[in-house]
Amino acid sequence: MKTILIILYLFFGFIGYSQITTKIIEIDLSKPHKKSVTIYTDSLPSAVDSSKWLSIKSREMAAIKLINGNPLSHNYKIDTKEISFFNNEQKSDEIIQEVKAESNKKFLKWDAENKTFESIIKKNNILARSIDSLNFEIEIFYEILRQKSKLVENDYSIKRLEFLSFAKEQLKSSYELLDNLQKLDNDIQNSITQKSVIETKDKAEKSIKIIVEKFYGIDLNVYTFPIDVQGKNIDIIEFKLRRFNKETKVEEADFASTPYNIWIKGGVKIDVSAGVFFTSLYDDDYDKRDDPSTAGNKIIMLKNSGDYDMAFGSTINTYIRMNSWIVPTLNFGAVITQNEKLQVLLGGGVILGKQERIIFSTGISMGKVDRIADGYQVGSSYNLGDSGTIPIQSQFKFGHFFGITYNLSKVKKISLDKGIEEN
């Protein structure tokens, strides 16, 4: 039993560890700068420190939420994709059918008193003016909402309920007038009056559609679909927030003028850099002079060439993504010395910068270099023959190096519009 419990604990622990979470980047449209951004993970909010970059972990997905905008006055786009603040959850046709069904239940009984053509025409004229008055009030209120810098549901939730309730009653009244009209006998007068009553009924139905469209179709909780970056060799999720005047369609250039960059942290990243290196491995350079004590002999001398040789090459840099200007890295690479000798490098260093990266590295250098041949020593006297050539041989040696390189792999970003690309 104990073994089974341990297995279950490890199994569910592994599932919990591998579970993907979504981080929500919440942007306040009323003040669209990075200091107003809030990050949510698993519905737990935490304010972003404006001194740091926006970031998510490599195993997380990112979704963007827009708040405090005003979709009545502006259209918003992320890159070139328009963000819709409207939905079709409440259908105006369904509301009209509900009103019609409720009205039919009330028309089962007929009371002929005061139900004449004259009374129907009078009531219809009053109803038509009432609908016009309601529509005028709706337009005035809609324009007031359009002038707001940001729109929240409390701005219109009570008023839209009042509008809709009043519009329903008006539509019920129009149905009642039509029903009463159909129960009168004079066909000629019925036909003339019916046209006017139907026009009022259509106007009442249109009023409901306007209310639903303007006030019930708004969805202020707008999210983009989660963006999955797992296994992708990228550094940044980048997007540009744009705002357009709803009437003129003109973009407001000063609104969120700089792109948002969400940096990826965690996970292994591999880049390539190239630059200059200083290696302690280089070919020894020898000289000779006559031996005064032995005729024909030469004394072999080692030239002082300094401690390091300059080389040029590149390294592969492996590191963990961090939300920092300074990132430690492991390096593996190769260089060519001034004598065109190949050397292999293995070491570590630090990467400085985010967009443009400079790498300082140090470590072990390995390669073949020229040394004096076995049996010969510097400072000793030898008969070098007619050629006078100092015998040397190639030997594999270890040394150390210092390097300064520039990252050849540019920052890779994933654009919400264009996909993965290099910056």
Descriptive notes:
The structure is a single chain. This protein is α+β, with helices and mostly antiparallel strands and 423 residues long. It folds into three domains: 2-85 and 220-265, Sandwich (Immunoglobulin-like); 92-216, Up-down Bundle (Methane Monooxygenase Hydroxylase, Chain G, domain 1), CATH 1.20.58; 268-422, no CATH class. 28% of the residues lie in helices and 36% in strands. The protein contains five helices and 23 strands. The strands form five sheets. Strands 1, 2, 3, 5, 8 and 9 form a six-stranded mixed β-sheet that branches. Strands 13-16-17-18-19-21 form a six-stranded antiparallel beta barrel. Strand 18 and strand 19 form a beta hairpin. The longest helix is centred in the first third of the chain and has 30 residues, at 117-146. It is rod-shaped and about 150 Å long. The two termini are 56 Å apart. 24% of the residues are buried. The model is unreliable at 7-18 and 47-51 (pLDDT under 50).
